[in-house]
Amino acid sequence: MGRRRGRSTVLWTVGGLLATVAILTTYSALTSEEQPTSARPGATAPPPTPRNTATPIPLETYSAPATWTEPTRWQALPRGSRAAANGRETGFPDSVDGAVAMLVAASAINAQGSRSLADEQWAIYAAYTASSEQSAALSQKVREGTARTDASTRAAMGLETTGPMPSGAHIRSQAVGFKIIRSAPGIVSTHLLVRSTQKAGELQPEKVSYIVCALSVAWREGDWKFTARPTSDRADEAPAIAAPGDAAFNSAGWTAIRQAS
């Protein structure tokens, strides 16, 4: 398979990380699906516009190649040394690798059964936002925003918008690559390549998308936390979407992710 030319779909509801951190960070979200599909009602409805959000632009529709090309850049990222009250991994080193490792941890979504996308998004907000910024007003906005995102995502999948998800249904995401935009003492900005999957039930096909987002984190309260500080003028210069194993992943400058044991 190769790349098929066409307009990409901006899936604000896929990759639950983005719906939460949109409130806190500057990012640009660009997606490309492995298998082209037509847009479905509700699939592209955006959450409230975050500050300084870059304008999404159309990309070529992406199809992962049948042959494997080994990534030329790999990075073993450190693990966190502790966990937040909700179980999210925290306590990352004060280093560029530690900042990227925090973003990798924050990108991990696994909504299935009685664990909703809203639950996952709230846990990300609670674990990776500085406590000094977690006001009652902001927390309420996050609660409302994550509930809307959960409902619209499930509706786009053809599921009931409340209650446990059916057997075999899931919404998942995980970072698979990164490219540093800039780093300075106490702040790191990077493009993150996130692989997101949706499955509406046991007998339903799994839909796979890749999302590129520009995110910044700052060293706050002894750990890396999301920050609304602008990434840089280069945040709009998103690398091309390509999955690990595609030669284009290397030419776009992505680094594949390994996590230290």
Automatic annotation (TrEMBL):
Residues 31-57 are annotated as: Disordered. This is Integral membrane protein.
